[in-house]
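Researcher: Here's the sequence for the chain we discussed earlier.
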Amino acid sequence: MRVHLLDGTYELFRHYYALEQHRNANGDEVAAARGVVASVLMMLEGGATHLAVATDHVIESFRNELWPGYKDSSGIEPDILSQFGLLENALQALGVVVWPMVEYEADDGLAAGAAMAAADPRVEEVLICTPDKDLAQCVDGQRVMQFDRRNRVVLDEEAVRAKFGVGPASIPDYLALVGDSADGFPGIKGWGKKSASTVLARYLHLERIPASPLQWEVTVRGAASLATNLAAHFEDALLFRHIATVVREAPVSATVDELRWRGPTPALGEMAATLDVPELVARARRAGQGESG
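Model: Thanks. This is the structure I predict for it:
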């Protein structure tokens, strides 16, 4: 059994900026939502059987209380925000399981879903469909992998090490040092990708890095300055790591059986009209019967 877990928020933004705008008869912008629905339907037509989509029901999460600069909904185009709920409703009408995150984020939903699916011995492969580097921490061998659908790139554990210089378990520590501009936390001054990966490849976690650079068993340019900055802002580093660590206990489905797609619901007809895609119902029904196209 293969399980697909999709980052609905990322997909919504990706389609919003890739597609021309389209307003329905009510004047509502729907292009991004219908683009994501079409993309998900293509996955189902292509043979995906067990699928869930995690979304940010709201942008803000518990992390906004931890760091004032953490990403929020300010500055986001109203035509994107207006499609968050529309996308969730459309996917549910399609018969797809949706995990709308409120206290947590879509990343947490994906992580929790991956943990749930990986615990089932019937599952041979879990594909976390997002390019977000945070989710690299969930990769496990060649069983739980990250899949960038846009660029058709799959990251197994070996590929994570090749890309970041550290294994999945050290990704939160890596992000704590280098920062994450997309999420809004700066990292520790002076630390870059090369220095962070070199040091963490040896010590794995922040607490294991010797305070004195003279004790470092790796060679890093500017080690003295790096050690000084880390010592001065160690509490910030721990906070950034906490922010970058996905919550694998976020609320998701209890079993992979709940993720099996059984075809569209009766609500898809009304949703097809809202999205201005009249052929959506027939196409979804054909996919539900094992046909494609």
